[in-house]
């Protein structure tokens, strides 16, 4: 399989706004795959009435050179165990009804959509209101319906969130969830999806541990991005109140109307986040740069770190034999500004390659330029191979095999001081390496 870089469009395409145009922008960045989320509620608004309008909006703008990956959530106000049109998804009340919709959808898209994913991060109660056994049964029905409508399609296991692999030092409910699904649902999926957030230098161990669990199943990276605020130790004490207010507790129910109204953030969290914003000027720069309306120099710093992080994560993953990585995300779901007092927005809202200008997704951030350059440099690469530098454990050098190009950087001593590596400078092929990844000409020492 050739190396392919992809992008996630977003988590609610066509749900709260009309379907927009995004495929030409993804193509310009060099993305060879687009991942799009859909929900049972929008695909079958009422029993027996199918609506493929959002799906057709995607099919109508994607060319033959772009693979499609659809992630489906079994969320329905009438068909799912926990009635909602958005999240969390839950087991269908009538699995046959869900399977009928799925067969019709896959048949409608036959030959156009390569990857079909059964839910997203089902071990996380934010996204799946059911047990591991519930998910296995759901996955088995999903697999049968997809394969009956398109035998050549691949079924992707619901994305595995960060922290499940590598093995935690203590008992972990999400890891046990996935180990049960991997074991009991082994014949009901073709591809295993891992999500690489958090410390990028854990990526090789994460991939190794995931492969040990799934055996001969291909492993892909369905989401990645960074850095997150929690990667900076100095921010923890300032987020304690928000976290203790229950910021990452499961939603009882999140609906599309909640997104319209902006009422999906619990009041204690909203109040704690407002107090955090009231003292933004006193907070560490490492936290301010993730906040809406931060000073321009801190916004520029975060953009720079984000662009560098994109290269680092891809090099570490691709050098471990991964052949598909999918960046979260191409751009915001709608042109509306983010809700600053939502904790999940603080964590993830700036993970965007592009931004809207009016109703058009047309503004490229520095990370988009980094993505585009990496995609261009990877064209024709047979592999990505790490080149060890004797005596320099801080040196990360990767050869894009067959292209004459390397990507190289020095690992900083801490994420808070990325410009101050502890070991002496290293010159590689005429370039002085720093903590910022750079492309150099591959040559012998």
TrEMBL record:
<dbReference type="InterPro" id="IPR017853">
    <property type="entry name" value="GH"/>
</dbReference>
<dbReference type="InterPro" id="IPR051923">
    <property type="entry name" value="Glycosyl_Hydrolase_39"/>
</dbReference>
<protein>
    <submittedName>
        <fullName>Uncharacterized protein</fullName>
    </submittedName>
</protein>
